[in-house]
Write a structure and sequence with these properties.
The chain is α/β, with parallel strands linked by helices and about 900 residues long. Among the domains are: about 120 residues, Rossmann fold (3-Layer(aba) Sandwich), CATH 3.40.50; about 100 residues, Immunoglobulin-like (Sandwich), CATH 2.60.40; about 150 residues, Sandwich (Jelly Rolls). It is built from 17 helices and 50 strands. The strands form twelve sheets. It has a six-stranded parallel sheet. The radius of gyration is 30 Å and the shape is globular. About 50% of the residues are buried.
Length: about 900
């Protein structure tokens, strides 16, 4: 894509609903002010999507993009999630609706005798009396068709035996007449339907013709309209949360066996099952819906079903769209629903994260709606739905980055949609932490959610960054985006360095008990052992990933791993066992327990000699084997790190993810050369003290590191270059100053963002307290002005404010010194101070949250949160040394 205008690592959603031209132009101008040179246009929705009104608005967007030398990505549907195909299924191709199989049952208790069942009444779901009158497409339901009638023998309680009888050939007309052996049985009438499932206006992801409707409805019209811009101004298409959608319920437990859940189906899937099981595959179908006592055939068919549907999703949806984009000179990106294990499930999921990403040119994830919260990594949190903090904090970013780093097609690129639906209280301070968290996991492309042009306040998934001039923190957001772009570029076009690989848990989740991979991810991250998550497909198709096993090391797409860590899984795929047998010299470590069986049997002799390690001992065992990269002399579970090699130089990110505790200690890096400190916010390098040492019998360098809560540090290999300025921590800067001066009083004024900078009247105060004490509904910019007098211009000086909510700009003697967006709120003001009187102005920008208390909130709540105070209070001082 070398003919693009200019590649940019940030492309926020621009929500388009048919706004006036002037509003559209202003919003794009504001995006450009953030240093952003790409956007992703999203109909939210746009009533004339792919019609005259949409083309009119797109013409404006393209003209503005050319003016600012920007790229455009196009979210590929009229509304999310992707798969609606701009309504074309309902309008033109009703025969391409999703197809499902589902079941209704009749229990037969007692023994002997012929039975008759009216199957014509069973080609629809049973309902409760409270559901009578719910709307139903009776015309479509009339097309429901029997696939099989199968009886399964009952065991105890809700369990069944793995004994089935196919009664399908006994169906005559509307009835099935049969005689069952003695005992208790359940008769399943399994039927195909296009109406008794999820949203019937969406494409069938596992049917090639149906999935192609997405291309016909959205991709081809854009190509016809803007062919000359493809691969130039238009960078590509973005799929947002495409999913199986086999149920209408919003849930994360859409696994086989979920009561009353219809299952995705297609002719091709039926052919795959017939090839595997023969014509008797129908005898296995009840095991997709019922739990069995033996758990052998049940686990096998559930594994095979999920294996097949995930491969069909990959081929018929993801790769079909990706191949179309490649043939038309653009790229294909996006993400699926990953939440709480959904990345390997049905419903809102796509059955297998890595297969779902196969057609894309970047890996993709999203972090929205409070999924990652600073200071709460392991809690299950209450939002619109329960949030598994452990998965989001320890596994999600690594899973996405691993896909981007290990799949050659993706060229080391992983995108994250972020910030959306966190609410108005989620300001730039918290955005900075979330961004740094993702960077240290390996994310290097960002899709901020969102720039909305609706009237303020838009209740659709805030925060919105400009909000028609009503977001007080927009200037600070702009600086955050410039920082983010610098960091993403720094972490691109190189190689991640990891010590071990962790096996993806998707297949383990399909059938049987297992240890979620986030348990292992957490253990490794908390002990500073870095890793990548690898899928079974990668291991069993190494050549596709530039991979090999050589000298007891696994190589994959330029990376190398000293061991494979396998979280406990009840059953394991046969081809994985074959991989282990073929590469017997490569260390494979099973966590807690060996698998109980293979998918199609119990032959685990090849694994019997492999090491089993308890989860709590895993990191210690890996370190005993020298399977680690860096060493930290202080136990600190919230210290995350990321090792990257670019242009032959090593760089390391360290992030203190604790919200309360400072990290102070030494890190030993596997480098012969020294490192320097890179401040990406200020765009400057500083020297750090390096001590030569030995690590794993090799030359290494030891560095002292002090990180405040939430602080990130970047250390870059120097190879002998001289860097003049010495890096000192915030505390060192203050502690090494011999003098300090306090402010006698402040003149305080405030203004809403839309009226800035007209502050109006000010109030003189001697003691600072939160503005929210007196004005609890104020959101905007608060201006604090004071004077200090110095005998001489200082040799060094630092302004320190104890409590700021939540971002600040400092102006000294009329000169802007800079912006600070996170604690500690401390700034070097040496160059701006003078002998005599000095005018100090501090502007503090709030989030828009408290303003919503004025009645701007919608008449519903997704969750309830506390509000922080506003303004600046506590200790505010200048620490300085005289010349």
């Amino acid at each position: 894509m070398s003919n693009r205008v200019e590649e940019n690592h940030i492309f926020p959603f621009l929500w388009m609903r048919g706004e006036d031209e002037s509003i559209l132009k202003t919003e794009i101008e504001k995006i450009h002010e953030c240093g952003i040179k790409a956007i992703c246009v999203e109909a939210r929705p746009h009533d004339e999507f792919c019609k005259e009104g949409w083309w009119h608005d797109m013409d404006i967007v393209i003209a503005e993009a050319k003016k600012y030398k920007m790229q455009i990505w196009i979210l590929d549907d009229k509304h999310f999630p992707t798969g609606y195909a701009n309504g074309l299924i309902a309008e033109k191709y009703p025969e391409r609706k999703k197809t499902y199989i589902t079941t209704t049952v009749a229990d037969v208790f007692g023994s002997g005798g012929y039975q008759t069942l009216d199957v014509s009444r069973m080609l629809r779901p049973t309902i409760g009396y409270w559901e009578i009158g719910n709307p139903v497409d009776m015309e479509e339901r009339a097309n429901n068709k029997i696939l099989a009638v199968v009886a399964i023998r009952c065991a105890n309680g809700h369990l069944f035996h793995e004994e089935t009888i196919d009664l399908t050939d006994k169906v005559e007309g509307n009835y099935v007449n049969f005689e069952l052996p003695k005992g208790q049985w359940r008769v399943h009438v399994i039927y195909k339907t296009k109406t008794d499932g999820g949203n019937d206006t969406y494409i069938n992801m596992i049917d090639r013709e149906s999935a192609s409707t997405q291309i016909e409805a959205v991709y081809e019209p854009h190509y016809k309209q803007y062919k000359e811009e493809f691969g130039k101004t238009i960078a590509g298409f973005f799929s947002d949360e495409p999913q199986f959608g086999n149920i209408k319920e919003v849930c994360f437990d859409a696994k086989l066996g979920k009561p009353k859940m219809p299952l995705p189906w297609s002719d091709e899937l039926q052919q795959m099952l017939e090839e595997k099981y023969g014509t008797k595959y129908v005898n296995y179908l009840p095991y997709l819906f019922e739990e069995t006592e033996e758990k052998e055939k049940q686990l096998q068919i559930r594994f095979d079903y999920m294996d097949f549907v995930s491969k069909l999703y990959q081929k018929n949806f993801s790769e079909q769209l990706g191949n179309w984009c490649k043939a038309h000179g653009v790229e294909y990106i996006g993400h699926v629903v990953e939440d709480n294990g959904t990345h390997s499930r049905l419903g809102m999921g796509a059955a297998h994260y890595f297969r779902a990403m196969a057609g894309q040119d970047m890996a993709g994830i999203d972090v929205i709606g409070g999924q990652i919260i600073y200071g709460a990594p392991t809690q299950t949190r209450k939002q619109m739905t329960d949030i598994d903090g452990e998965f989001f904090h320890y596994a999600l970013g690594k899973m996405g980055a691993s896909c981007g780093q290990l799949d050659p097609k993706k060229k080391g690129r992983t995108m994250c949609e972020l910030f959306g639906a966190y609410g108005w209280k989620f300001g730039v301070r918290d955005m900075k932490y979330l961004l740094d968290h993702l960077l240290v996991k390996g994310i290097n492309y960002l899709v901020p959610h969102a720039f909305s042009m609706a009237e303020y306040p838009d209740i659709d998934c805030p925060p919105h960054f400009y909000a028609r001039g009503n977001n007080p923190q927009f200037p600070y957001f702009a600086e955050l985006m410039k920082y983010g772009d610098r960091m993403c570029k720094l972490l691109s076009n190189g190689l991640h360095v990891a010590s071990v690989a962790v096996l993806y848990d998707g297949e383990a989740d399909w059938a049987g008990n297992y240890m979620p991979m986030q348990k292992v991810c957490r253990e490794l991250i908390e002990h500073q052992i870095d890793f990548n998550i690898v899928s079974r497909d990668m291991l069993t198709n190494l050549k596709d990933y530039n991979g090999k096993v050589e000298n007891n090391v696994l190589y994959m797409n330029g990376m190398k791993f000293e061991a494979l860590v396998v979280p406990y899984t009840e059953q394991i795929a046969v081809d994985f066992v074959e991989f282990v047998k073929e590469h017997a010299e490569f260390p494979v470590i099973f966590v807690d327990k060996l698998p109980d069986r293979t998918v199609n049997g119990n032959n685990l002799e090849a694994l019997a000699s492999y090491e089993v390690v308890k989860l709590a001992s895993l990191s210690a065992e890996l370190k005993n084997k020298d399977m680690f990269d860096i060493a930290v002399d202080t136990e600190f579970k919230d210290l995350s790190f990321y090792h990257y090699v670019k242009d032959g130089k090593n760089l390391f990110l360290f992030l203190n993810e604790s919200a309360e505790d400072k990290f102070t200690g030494h890190v030993t890096l596997p480098l012969e050369y020294k490192v320097k400190y890179y401040d990406a916010w200020k765009q400057e390098y500083r020297s750090v003290e390096n001590d030569s040492t030995i690590l794993k019998d090799q030359k290494a360098t030891k560095v002292s590191l002090e990180l405040e809560p939430g602080e990130i540090a970047v250390l870059v290999e120097t190879e002998g270059e001289v860097v003049e300025n010495l890096h000192r921590s915030f505390a060192q800067q203050r502690n090494e100053c011999e003098k300090q001066v306090e402010f006698a009083s402040w003149n305080v004024g405030k203004v809403r963002a839309i009226e800035y900078p007209n502050f109006g009247e000010t109030e003189q105060v001697e003691t600072l307290e939160p503005i929210s004490f007196k004005d609890p509904t104020f959101s905007g910019v608060i201006r604090y002005e004071s004077e200090v007098e110095l005998d001489t211009a200082p040799a060094e000086a630092y302004l320190y404010a104890e409590h700021v909510y939540e971002v600040m700009k400092v102006v000294v003697n009329g000169q802007e010194v800079g912006k600070c967006i996170r604690p500690p709120y401390q700034m070097d003001i040496t160059e701006s101070l003078q002998a005599g009187k000095n005018n100090i102005v501090i502007e503090v920008a709030t989030t828009p949250a408290r303003e919503q208390l004025k009645g701007m909130r919608p008449p519903f709540d997704f969750n309830h949160e506390t509000l922080e105070p506003t303004g600046m209070y506590g200790e505010v001082k200048i620490f300085y040394n005289e010349k």
